[in-house]
Structures are given as C-alpha cells and as structure tokens.
C-alpha cells in the first residue's frame, strides 16, 4: 500500500519529504509504514493500513504543546516522555537534527491517478535494441552439453 501511494503521487510526508511526522497518520509516513497508522490519537501505530485524512493539528518541534497532542484537546501527548504534560516543549520527533514544522495532509483528497510520480515526462528515452547472439538457444530440457 505504501508503494502504491508513491504511484498515486504521495510522498513520505504527504505532499513533502519530511519523514516520520507524528501528526501525519498515513501508511506513507515512515513512522507508521510497518506498525500501521495511529487511529486513536496515541503515539503508537494501531496496525491500521490507511492513508491520511488531513485532520490533525500542525505542530512545530521547537514549540510542542503537550496538552493538544496531534488531535487537539483532550488528547494530550507527552512528547518528551517526562511524565508531565507541559504547554511548550522542544523535541526532535523525526531525528533530523532540525526544528521542523509538521503539517498533516489529506492523502485521500489528493490521490493522482495519472501515473507514476517519479518519472518526469521528458526523461523517458527509447533505447536502441542490440542483438547479442543470433544462435538459437538449446531447449531447456536438453541434457546435451
């Protein structure tokens, strides 16, 4: 389903390449690629294979409000794991060593059935055919050497 999403023009962050976004609950997200997406506003994946509906709040790693998590209140999320729900914490959620702004994306409303995303139209070139050998191949069941 993940690879199919690439053929429908979805990226690892929906419409961008930001990986492991906590608020992008899609099988396209590397965070949920194998565990399935979270469908009940908790940090863990719940085994559901689905694309995102784009309903989660935008978050910024330098100013995470643990009171709202990714679904809004009352779904708190202890981003830094200290056992205290705080109004502002900074955590590198996706391990890219930068303070990323993470947005959700509505995959279902943006599926593109026109074809493969990664092949630009002008990059396809017809290659010449080269005949390597004109000798017939021996039958597969032949024991002759």
Structure description:
There is one protein chain. The chain is low in regular secondary structure and 145 residues long. It has one helix and two strands. The chain has one domain. It has one helix spanning 2-7, and strands at 59-60, 101-102. Strands 1-2 form a two-stranded antiparallel ribbon. It is elongated and about 75 Å long. The relative contact order is 0.21.
Per-chain topology:
Blueprint: H1 2-7, E1 59-60, E2 101-102
What would you call the shape? elongated
**Helix and strand composition category:** little secondary structure
Side by side, the strands of the main sheet go 1-2
**Helix and strand element order:** HEE
Q: What's the quaternary structure here?
A: single chain
Radius of gyration: 23 Å
- Poorly predicted spans: none
- Helical content stands at under 10%
Strand content: under 5%
Would you count the extended β strands for me? 2
* Number of helical regions: 1
Total of domains: 1
Gap from first CA to last CA: 46 Å
| Largest β sheet strand count, sense and barrel closure | 2 strands, antiparallel
Average pLDDT works out at 86
